[in-house]
C-alpha cells in the first residue's frame, strides 16, 4: 500500500540515483559529498553537494521532516492542523560553462495528521544564453511526461511555472520556465506515478544538455554575463521564492536551503546589453507565455 | 521656516558633498557618475555610482518622491493617509581591500498629507575582518554625535541597529552595527539638526577608514573571505531589509534599490573557518549586544 514510508523511500532512492548519474556524466571522477543533518523538531535530511568538471556547484537535497506546524506556518499553508509530515528532493545545478543552463528540480509530498495529503514539484531551466531549439526540446520532454498521465496537465503546469519563476522587480522570468505544480491530489497511486515520472525525467534531460553544451567555447565576456544571470537567480530565490523565504524565516536549515545559490554572482549598476547581442536576445526571451514547444 | 523644501535641499547637498569627498579620498581621479530618474507616480531621484581605486562599487542615492500610498503601503507603514512625501540619502560602499569595511548610511524624512512627519536614518559598519579598535572608534564617533543632541539616544539607537541589521537565518549580525532610528519626531528643527549631524559624520568616518586601511596587504584567501561576507550582505538585504523588500515588492526603482549589492559575492556550502583563524574570530564577534565603545 502506498504511504509516506514508501514515498519517502522512493525519493531517497531518486536522490542517490540522480547523484550517481550526474557524477558519471560530469566525468571528473568525483562523487557527491554527503552531509546528514537532523531537524530539532523532528526528522532530518541528507544534503549532497558537488563540484566537478562540468558542474561548478551542485546541490541535491533530500529531506523527511515531521512535527508540529506553528500557527504562522498553518496560516501560510492555509491549513488548520498542526501535525505534519513532508518529504522531498530538491536540486539546483550551476554549470561552469555559460552555454550550459542552470537547472532546478523539486518533487515533494506533504501530509497532515488528519490524513490530508498532496504532491508538488516541477522542473525549470535557466539558460544563461537561450537557445530556442534546446528550450523547445526541454519543454517537449516535459509535455511528454505530462501527456503520459491523466493528472499531468502540461499547459496548466507550464503557465504555473511562468507565473511562479517570475522576477517581478525585473519584469523578467528566471529562465525559460518548465512545469510547476502544487497541491496535486487525485488517485494517490497515479498521482505518485506522475511525480515519479517527473523525478525520473530530470537526469536524462540535464545529462543531454551537459553532453551537448559543455565543450562550447566561451570567453571572459560570456563569464561576465553568466555572473550577471546568476545574480538574477539569487534575487529570485531570496526575494520571491516562497519555499526559500518560508525556510529562512522559520528556522529551516540555512545551508540546505541555500544550496541553490550560485558559486559566484556579480551585480553591475544598470547593465544594458549591446543592441543585437546574444545577451540582449536572451533578455528579450525572458518573458511569460512563450509557447516553447513550438519554438524548435 | 523648516519644511520639506529645505530638508530636501539639504539632503541633495549632502549627496553632492559626500560624493565629492569620497572621490577625492579615493584618489583615482574619477568622479561619481550621475543617473537622473523619474518616478511614474511622482518625484524621482539622482543615483550616483562609483568604481575607483579604493572603492570597488559605491552607490550614493538621493530621492524625493511623492504621491499616493497604496492601501498595502499604508498598512505596512501603519498610517491611514494616502498622500505622502519622502526624501532621503542612502549610501553603500564596497571597497576592494578586504581590510576596509563595507559601510551603509541612510538619512530620510517622511511626511503625510495630514502634516504628520518623521525622520529616520543611521550608519552601520560591516568589516570583513573585525578590528576591535576600529569598531570602538566608529561607535565612539556615533555616540558623540548622539550626545550632542537631546534627541540622540546612543544606547537606544545602537540596540536598534543590532536588532535591525541581524541575519536571523545565520544567527549573526551583518557587521558591528552602529546606530539606527526611525519615526523620530520632536522639535522639528532640533530633530533635523541631529539628522544633519549624522549625515555629516558619514564622510569623515569612512575617509578615515579608507586612509588607514586601504594599503594593508592581502592575498587570495582574504579575497575569498570578503566574497563570502559579501554574500551575507546580499542575504541580509534581500531577505531581511524592510526597505529593500518594500521597494522591490512595490515597484520601486530596482537599479537604485540594488545599488547596495556588492560587485561580486560567493556562496560555499557549509563553509567553516579554521579554528583560531582571523575569519573565525570575526564570526565570533558578529553578535548583538557587544559594547563596542568599551572595546577599544
Quick summary:
With 296 residues, chain A is an alpha+beta fold. The first copy, chain A, has helices at 4-26, 71-77, 132-147, 154-164, 188-213, 220-240, 242-249, 254-257, 278-284; strands at 33-38, 43-50, 55-68, 83-95, 102-112, 117-126, 166-167, 172-173, 177-184, 264-266.
Structural class of chain A: alpha+beta
- Backbone shape of chain A: globular
Please, what is the oligomeric state?
homodimer
- Proportion in helices of chain A: 40-55%
Report the β-strand fraction of chain A as a percent range: 25-35%
* Overall pLDDT level of chain A: 96
Query: Which segments of chain A are poorly predicted (pLDDT under 50) over 5 or more consecutive residues?
Result: none
The biggest beta sheet of chain A, please? 7 strands, antiparallel
Element order of chain A: H for helix, E for strand = HEEEHEEEHHEEEHHHHEH
Strand order of the largest sheet of chain A: 1-2-3-4-5-6-9
Q: Count of DSSP helices of chain A? A: 9
Largest interface (CB within 8 Å) is between: A-B, 34 and 34 residues
SS elements, strand count of chain A: 10
Q: What radius of gyration of chain A results from the CA coordinates?
A: 19 Å
Write a structural description:
The structure is a homodimer of 296-residue chains. Chain A is of the alpha+beta class and 296 residues long. Helix content of chain A is 42%, strand content 26%. Chain A is built from nine helices and ten strands. A seven-stranded antiparallel beta sheet of chain A has the order 1-2-3-4-5-6-9. In chain A, helix 1 (4-26) packs parallel to helix 5 (188-213). The longest helix of chain A is centred in the last third of the chain and has 26 residues, at 188-213. Chain A is globular and about 55 Å long. The model of chain A has no long low-confidence stretch (mean pLDDT 96). Chains A and B meet through helix 6, helix 7, helix 8 and strand 10 of A and helix 6, helix 7, helix 8 and strand 10 of B. Strand 10 of chain A pairs antiparallel with strand 10 of chain B.
Amino acid at each position: 500500500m502506498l504511504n509516506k514510508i514508501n514515498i519517502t523511500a522512493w525519493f531517497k532512492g531518486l536522490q542517490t540515483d540522480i547523484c550517481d548519474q550526474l557524477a558519471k556524466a560530469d566525468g571528473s571522477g568525483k562523487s557527491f559529498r554527503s552531509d546528514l543533518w537532523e531537524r530539532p523538531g523532528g526528522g532530518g535530511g541528507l544534503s549532497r553537494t558537488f563540484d566537478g568538471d562540468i558542474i561548478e556547484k551542485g546541490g541535491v537535497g533530500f529531506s523527511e521532516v515531521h512535527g508540529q506546524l506553528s500557527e504562522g506556518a498553518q496560516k501560510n499553508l492555509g491549513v488548520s492542523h498542526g501535525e505534519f509530515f513532508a518529504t522531498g528532493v530538491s536540486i539546483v545545478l550551476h554549470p561552469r560553462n555559460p552555454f550550459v543552463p542552470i537547472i532546478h528540480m523539486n518533487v515533494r509530498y506533504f501530509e497532515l495528521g488528519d490524513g490530508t495529503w498532496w504532491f508538488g514539484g516541477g522542473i525549470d531551466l535557466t539558460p544563461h544564453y537561450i537557445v530556442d531549439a534546446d528550450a523547445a526540446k526541454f519543454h517537449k520532454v516535459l509535455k511528454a511526461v505530462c501527456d503520459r498521465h491523466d493528472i499531468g496537465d502540461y499547459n496548466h503546469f507550464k503557465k504555473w511555472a511562468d507565473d511562479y519563476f517570475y522576477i517581478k522587480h525585473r519584469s523578467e522570468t528566471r529562465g525559460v520556465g518548465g512545469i510547476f505544480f502544487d497541491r496535486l491530489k487525485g488517485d494517490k497511486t497515479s498521482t505518485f506515478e506522475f511525480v515519479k515520472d517527473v523525478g525520473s525525467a530530470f537526469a536524462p534531460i540535464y545529462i543531454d544538455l551537459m553532453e551537448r553544451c559543455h565543450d562550447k567555447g566561451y570567453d571572459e565576456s560570456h563569464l561576465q554575463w553568466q555572473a550577471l544571470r546568476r545574480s538574477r537567480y539569487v534575487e529570485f530565490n531570496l526575494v520571491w521564492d516562497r519555499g526559500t523565504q518560508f525556510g529562512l524565516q522559520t528556522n529551516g536549515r540555512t545551508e540546505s536551503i541555500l544550496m541553490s545559490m550560485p558559486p559566484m554572482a556579480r551585480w553591475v549598476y544598470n547593465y544594458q546589453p549591446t543592441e543585437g547581442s546574444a545577451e540582449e536576445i536572451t533578455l528579450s526571451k525572458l518573458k511569460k507565455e512563450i509557447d516553447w514547444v513550438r519554438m524548435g
